[in-house]
Amino acid sequence: MPPKRTAKQRVTSADETPNKKPKIENASSDPLREPHHFAAEAEEHGIVLRKYYPPEMSNARAQAYNDNTLPRPIEQLEAALEETASARKDIQVGEAVIHWFKMDLRTTDNRALWEASQKAQEAGVPLICVYIVSPEDLEAHFTAPVRVDFMIRTLHALKADLVELDIPLYVETVAKRKDIPERIVDFMQEWGANHLYANIEYEVDELRREAKMVGLCAEKGLAMMPFHDTCIVAPGALHTGTGKQYAVYSPWFRAWVAHIHANPELLSPFDPPAKNPPDAREKVAALFDYEIPDVPENKRLSEEDAKRFGATWPAGEREAMDRLDKFCEEKIAQYGKKRNFPSEAATSSISVHLAAGTLCARTAVRTARDRNKTKKLDAGVEGIQAWISEVAWRDFYKHVLVHWPYICMNKPFKPEYSNIEWSYNSAHFEAWCQGRTGFPMVDAAMRQVQGIGWMHNRCRMVVASFLCKDLLLDWRMGERFFMENLIDGDFASNNGGWGFSASVGVDPQPYFRIFNPLLQSEKFDPDGDYIRKWIPELSGIKGKAIHDPYNRGAAAEAKKAGYPEPIANHKESRDRALKAYKAGIDGDKP
Question: Is 492 exposed, middle or buried (0-12, 13-18, 19+ CB in 10 A)?
Fold first, then answer.
């Protein structure tokens, strides 16, 4: 086990982000704000929530980010930190120090929480924790009700853990997302806190909000202190030999591993916060009395669903560590061989905890590495190597998001792919959502989401490829559906996965990589166990007919049981997709 952090150990903060760039102005009258020529049609089918966002941007504007002529949100945050660095350094500790929880709902191995605790302990003042529930953010980001329910249940567990340390957790619902910065500043002033600590979230809205908050706090004589914690290696730390950002996973992963090997402290754990001073209970007594609010109405589950999901997905960081430890003890060695078979239950199922922050990637990788025969992340037990490389994808997709922020704005990583003329066939989309396409592997996976709010990763690729390539539906419809239904919905990972399957992302494979759903079913569910579990209509079908009942002699049985016929012909759909992709790319418009 690596040594724990000490108060004096040097670790990179947001103020020390590698390769800072000078601030670039972003004029609101920018002529590049012209919407993309397919924007109206996409918007009509739910791609953009105009309540919160403008239409899909033009390809030229996306390219302007690539050309470094528009400021990335991370650069706006860095500029705000640089401009306020001197003022923030001189601000004295007030009557309390505040940590703002976001998607880091844990006390253990939490960078900003540890930093806040250090500051409070040095000054002998209470540490106060706060969390903001934003119904508008939940709506704008398509956050799944099952995920919101998990978050609220996690807050209850987190509050109980903090109470043992005499640290209050104050949770407030703020109706308007635009009011959040001012509300947090008001809260700081109300409790005499001059310092606000928080871990950085890398989505565009959140980065811009934090840049605004850094300036707003400074104007009022307060200091916001954001830290890199979500990723093991901070975005911007890895570059190609020519100094560019990596856009391909394999070379990025080699650089990621080498960087961690050269900087082993990146995997060192942060201690939980220290117990508050003895008089803290008296000073902030009122904050202990506030209850955790209910799930906002716009994201509330039915009582039956809440009970079912609660039993399937227990909340809290202790549950996260128990699940991780059990996986490392029982399954990780065989992970590389079994991870693609959904009926095997061979994966860790910790994605929900990584998304909520009840477990951080640093802890996950360190725990797996410590079960290995070596401290090297790319050596030793094959299953451990394979699992660590899968966790690393999460870092990779967040690095991609930070450097190419337009992927957070309804644009594909390859802007020219936005010229593909997608279908918006509502009947096809409904069949896909409901798991009634007539393709058993696809339908089983979609029903798994309905049943437990989660889907095996191999199946995510299969259903996504089917939506984009077989049905030629706009990939962003599927991306939204996943976010609205998955308990582990994380924007960067979800977007990266859809980019891979729709061939619009960073993956170097061209658009003619099209999964055959039948072959995928035969290869990864050879005995049909996964299909039978989630499609009861097919539970009595024997042998290989389970993969394609209407074309393998089981049509009468499938029809009688109410299972639908296939809504597409894969070979014909493949040809249609190839033509549509080629026409879109060849017909690229500015």
Answer: buried
**3: amino acid identity, one letter:** P
432 is catalytic: no
Domain 415-586 coded CATH 1.10.579.10 = yes
Q: Which of 475, 485, 494, 495 is catalytic?
A: 475
pTM assigned to the model: 0.94
Selected catalytic residue, list 390, 484, 522, 557: 390
Q: Where along the chain do the CATH 1.10.579.10 domains lie?
A: 415-586
422 tagged catalytic: yes
Residues of the chain with CATH 3.40.50.620: 14-22+33-234+275-285
Decide: 488 and 313 in contact? Cβ < 8 Å. no
Name the residue with tokens 């977007």: 495
Q: Is 298 a catalytic residue?
A: no
Clarify whether 457 is annotated catalytic. Answer: yes
The total number of residues shown for the chain amounts to 590
Closest CA to 348 of 390, 307, 381: 390
SS3 label, residue 473: strand
* Active-site annotation holds for 475: yes
User: How far, in Å, CA of 146 to CA of 154, rounded?
Assistant: 12
Contacts of 346 (CB under 8 A, 6+ apart): 331, 334, 335, 338, 339
Active-site hit among 252, 387, 404, 422: 422
Dig out the tokens for 282 from the structure: 């008296």
Among residues 449, 357, 356, 447, the alpha carbon closest in space to that of 150 is found at: 356
Catalytic residue among 139, 457, 522, 557: 457
Active site residue 387: no
- Distance between CA atoms of 504 and 415, rounded to whole angstroms? 8
Alpha-carbon distance 584 to 541, whole Å?
A: 42
Note down pLDDT in tens along the chain; length 590 residues. 444 444 334 344 666 544 443 333 444 455 677 888 888 888 888 888 889 998 888 899 999 999 999 999 999 999 999 999 999 999 999 999 999 999 999 999 999 999 999 999 999 999 999 999 999 999 999 999 999 999 999 999 999 999 999 999 999 999 999 999 999 999 999 999 999 999 999 999 999 999 999 999 999 999 999 999 999 999 999 999 999 999 999 999 999 999 999 999 999 999 999 999 999 999 999 999 999 999 999 999 999 999 999 999 999 999 999 999 999 999 999 999 999 999 999 999 999 999 999 999 999 999 999 999 999 999 999 999 999 999 999 999 999 999 999 999 999 998 888 899 999 999 999 999 999 999 999 999 999 999 999 999 999 999 999 999 999 999 999 999 999 999 999 999 999 999 999 999 998 777 888 999 999 999 999 999 999 999 999 999 999 999 999 999 999 999 999 999 999 999 999 999 999 999 998 875 44
Task: Identify the active-site residue in 100, 404, 454, 498.
Answer: 498
Q: Which CATH architecture has domain 14-22+33-234+275-285?
A: 3-Layer(aba) Sandwich (3.40)
Return d(Cα 371, Cα 387) in angstroms, integer.
Answer: 12
The structure tokens 């003329």 sit at: 421
Of residues 491, 86, 149, the one with CA closest to residue 302: 149
Annotated active-site residue in 393, 432, 454, 534: 393
CA-to-CA distance for 98 and 80, rounded, in angstroms? 20
